[in-house]
Structure prediction request, 150 residues.
Amino acid sequence: MIRTFLLAAGLAFTVKSLALAPCPEGSSHLFDNCSGSHVYANGDAYAGEWKAGKKHGQGTYTWADGERYEGEWDSGTKSGVGAYFWNNGDRYEGQFVNGIYHGEGTFTYATGRSISGEWDVGKPWNAVARDPSGEVTHGFTDGVPQCRKN
Prediction:
């Protein structure tokens, strides 16, 4: 369901981006209500929507080391629905608040293990953990790990 939502959000971004004017040449702090790209001095890059010189709306931020975030931004902060991809193959897809995964989402490890459900400030809150085959291994209730009952 989250992937479907991300796909729909991505399509909405494409349509909305076409409606925004391209950002002007020059410094990103001048970008306002436009769509464009900026490469930072440290090698990080952002492509997407801007408002008042900050990442705002839909966009993709790629760190110089290759990690990336694709999704919604609010005044320069990851906020809304998005996906974060680590270099080791781990990924989180779901809701972000103030730059941290918070709300409904799924963290999938490169090994195939996953934790799906509600997250609270970057930690599983009411969630279910599964092995690579999809078998439930344990859960979390109010942030406390729960053993699997047979």
User: Anything to note?
Assistant: The longest strand covers residues 54-62. The domain at 2-21+30-147 is CATH 2.20.110.10 (Histone H3 K4-specific methyltransferase SET7/9 N-terminal domain). The mean pLDDT is 89.
